[in-house]
Amino acid sequence: MTEPALITDTLDIEPLAKGECHRFWVTLTEDAAGRPIRIPVMVARGHEDGPIIGVTAAIHGNELNGIPTIHRLFRDLEPAVLRGTLVAVPLVNLPGYLEQRRVFTDGYDLNRVMPGREDSSPSRIYAHRFMTRIVRSLQYLVDLHTASFGRVNSLYVRADMRHETTAAMARLISPQIIVHNEGTDGTLRSAAEDLGIHAITVEVGDPQRFQRGLIRSSRLGIQALLAHLGMLPEIPGDSQQGGDTVECSHSYWISSDCGGILQVFAEVAARVERGQRLATLTNLFGDVIREFLAPEDAIVVGATSNPVAQTGARIVHLGIEGNIR
Fold first, then answer.
1. Residue 270 CA, distance from chain mean position
2. End-to-end alpha-carbon separation of the chain, Å?
3. Does domain 6-228 have CATH number 3.40.30.10?
4. What's the topology of domain 251-321?
5. Residues 229-279: pLDDT tens digits?
6. Domains of the chain by residue range
7. Cis before 115? omega within 30
8. Dihedrals φ, ψ of 218, to 5°?
């Protein structure tokens, strides 16, 4: 029988037994009924000291592919041969998950309010305690996401490719696409980097569903990273598969300048040429009123799957190939 998870206010790795896996419910805040809001934390402590790496998922409550990625990572892990410590949070935004919403209970995006504040709004207090009670103990971080509602994503990584360590982390994931991104204020990645933690964001496909192939690929990528850090003697299980990763110096979205019914033709992870048709917009009478063309050669990082498009709706996320030196 599985041992019950321990309840704690703060994750403390040092006293944990080596060569074993540990489970916790870490209390962050309370709901309006005074009930504690606790998030699950899984810790694999190796047989000897080494790097401390964290893997987080579902900071947006509807982004679920990272949950089974973590579960399968631990299923294949043998703590007795692990060097260092793996800390995993399969569900960061528990309230959002329960409501099947991207945002926190107060309507704010947790990935825009990091590192939070100890005396502010519900989302910012939750973010602050997550950072201080769990994240601050890490040396490396892999933050797992998916596209938002109404969009689809390739398997891609956002990382600051100017820095040798984060660039190496991104490449070891072996995604379809890497997009150089220096980080945005308020994200978990930028807040972690401000603490001196090497961090990358991994986008694992689409929201509110499990995609077995992408889950497998992201899990293998994390195992490759663990092996690179000397935490595993070799990559367990299957070897990483897939084609060559496309590295992009930057990316941007094509947006609609009017409203209507959207049809996107561009496929994620596909290359498009300048002038190629990406999407069309029709009015409610069925007339095509806009045709959106690729402004330059690019690769499709993500796209909108929702046909209902108002003015300003995002259509296609394009990556522009090029290395950062």
1. 21
2. 52
3. no
4. OB fold (Dihydrolipoamide Acetyltransferase, E2P) (2.40.50)
5. 999 986 544 445 445 899 999 999 999 999 999 999 999 999 999 999 999
6. 6-228, 251-321
7. yes
8. -70, -35
